[in-house]
Amino acid sequence: MEAVGLSELMKHAGFTQGGFYNHFESKADLVAEVLASAIAEGNGEFAKMARAPVDEINHRSSALLNWYLSQAHRDNIDHGCPVTGFAGDAPRLGAEAQSHFAGGLDDQITILGWADRREWIFGCGGRA
């Protein structure tokens, strides 16, 4: 994150620095907003996979992990996991972005735990 300058970022996005400051107070605010949006989208997809019908996924937690760890998911830069995408930068992010990162990771763990508990309690595929 730190390696990308605001001028370079705005040029690539087709905006001016003045326009940027009309929407964000700082680059840290932009990063926090982007991370929050990416986490919400990524965890929405993760939760959707966890709720897939029984006839599509027989072992919910195993299928969820297989999908998450698949090469196709890993290589999908636009829709891959923001938690893994930002993991290397997390220690250097601002407090708001770190909060979104930690919350997103916690949500993923909760979703996976929910899928696993549902499978264990209700048997293969979880019917509740």
Key features?
128 residues; mainly alpha; 7 helices; 0% strand; disordered C terminus
Structural class determined from secondary elements: mainly alpha
Number of domains: 1
Distance between the termini: 43 Å
What ranges have pLDDT less than 50 throughout 5 or more consecutive residues?
Answer: 120-128
Task: Give the overall average pLDDT.
Answer: 78
Determine the strand fraction and express it as a percent band.
under 5%
Overall geometry comes to: elongated
By DSSP, the count of extended strands is: 0
Helix coverage percent of residues? 55-70%
Q: How would a textbook summarize the main sheet? A: none
What is the rounded Rg?
18 Å
Q: Topology as H/E string? A: HHHHHHH
Output the number of helix runs: 7
Notes on the protein architecture:
The protein has 128 residues and is an all-alpha fold. It has one domain. The chain is 67% helix and 0% strand.
Record the SSE blueprint.
Elements: H1 6-13, H2 17-23, H3 27-50, H4 60-68, H5 71-75, H6 82-86, H7 95-122
Helix pairs in contact: 3-7, 4-7
Sum this structure up briefly:
Helices cover 67% and strands 0% of the residues.
